[in-house]
Amino acid sequence: MLNILRQLCCFFGENKTKVLFTLCLFLQLDGRVEGSVDSREKVLEFRFDYCYWSVDPDDPQHASQDKVFQDLGVSVLSAASEGYNVCLFAYGQTGSGKTYTMMGTPVSNGGQIQEILFNYLIGSNIYSGRSLIVLLCSFLEIYNERVRDLLRGGEQKKRTSLRVREHPEKGPYVQDLSQHVVSDCKQAMELLEQGISNRMTAATHNHDASSRSHAIFTIQYTQAILENNLPSETVSRINLVDLAGSERADPQYCKDRLTEGSNINKSLVTLGIVISALAHNSQMSSSCQSINTVTSECDGSSSVSGGGARRHCFIPYRDSVLTWLLKDSLGGNSKTIMIATVSPSAACYNETLSTLRYAAHARNIVNKPRVNEDAHVRLIRELREEIDRLKNMLLSFEMQRNPSPSLSDEKEGSLSEMVLQNELKVHMFLSHTH
Ligand SMILES: Nc1ncnc2c1ncn2[C@@H]1O[C@H](COP(=O)(O)OP(=O)(O)OP(=O)(O)O)[C@@H](O)[C@H]1O
């Protein structure tokens, strides 16, 4: 088992100016630790939003699960309760602490998934009693590029692989994935434990219970509020992802292990390509905006910068099931946080460097999150607001009657007509939606 050096985290939410705290990590190759490494000293600098040390629990700097939750989990909770989609995913070498961070262990405090669920369910101060909240949970794994439902009962059903499809507005989804209403902590724990026990794990050289699949725990968080008699309903999707660990192939592994390994590597390579392409496009867009003279040429498909023509990259989301399912989380309508886990061992130098480069690329991505409000409910609210506005106008007309009665009568008549029409529209929408 490898010890955990740090869990680094980077945000790629709405824009980079939201960075709260930036820390430089100086990664030094220490030639004394392991014989086979390069003894020349290299200093590499990376910037992240948070940096955690969790090797020694007695160290005053030790970052507990709760500390990580206070920094990251709480921002997931508040973004979802504002109506945004959120994604929190853990990436890193095998054995570096992804599952520990996301799922926790029976002896440690819960991981981020449990903390997030419990905080919704016990309704800390994240939301007030005015709203109705419904949590729908699903839990899937991607094993050998196939999607399996981790919360299905029965042996046969557990092994069935499910199809990924794409909705024109809602984006990619898994057909027939079971969804479970969760209303208390006991229920939430049972679901989580059931899913974890159904997940594929196997012994590898570095880790005797290595996750051989990518796991995605999704909470669909619906919040209905009635404020001043005006309704609003937001539906946000929270994707909590524990990726399978990357590991170099060993010819001594059995065939199944090698197939698993090559599928894991394939999807992680695709993830890397997607992240690089998104980061490139985000940088292109920002340089496009900053160069006013070429704004007209930057029509979303190409731009000119530094004298040579540079184009937006194609994003190969569909090259792996993982990137297809996380399409919105990675480069679209979502506030996304990546946790990169690394090991302190000098033997892991190459993997650590690769993880840090991955995360540094991801940090350049600028997503476009938006509040996911139900379109019908929004229309009803807007019409009601308009009715109130028109009614107030009518009232003020009546109160200060104009010396020219014919004009004021005419205005009053058309205002009353508008109020009536809007009330009719609200009525039609309400009878249509019920
Ligand atoms: N911060 C930590 N403190 C204490 N123990 C930890 C910590 N991080 C990980 N561990 C322990 O290290 C072992 C490996 O961690 P974990 O299973 O989370 O790795 P992983 O990155 O998910 O590996 P894989 O990709 O192979 O599934 C586990 O026994 C876990 O409990």
Automatic annotation (TrEMBL):
- Could you tell me which SUPFAM superfamilies the record lists for this protein? P-loop containing nucleoside triphosphate hydrolases
**Any Pfam family hit:** Kinesin
**Domain of life assignment:** Eukaryota
Q: Name one GO cellular component term.
A: microtubule
Q: Which InterPro entries match?
A: Kinesin_motor_CS, Kinesin_motor_dom, Kinesin_motor_dom_sf, P-loop_NTPase
- Which keywords, in A-to-Z order, does the entry hold? ATP-binding, Coiled coil, Microtubule, Motor protein, Nucleotide-binding
Xref: SMART domains: KISc
- Which GO MF term does the entry hold, naming one? ATP binding
Domain spans labelled Kinesin motor = 22-365
Q: Which residues bind ATP?
A: G92, Q93, T94, G95, S96, G97, K98, T99
Q: In which family does this protein belong, per the annotation?
A: Belongs to the TRAFAC class myosin-kinesin ATPase superfamily. Kinesin family.
Q: What is this protein called?
A: Kinesin-like protein
Organism the protein comes from: Gouania willdenowi (Blunt-snouted clingfish)
| Lineage of the species this protein comes from | Eukaryota, Metazoa, Chordata, Craniata, Vertebrata
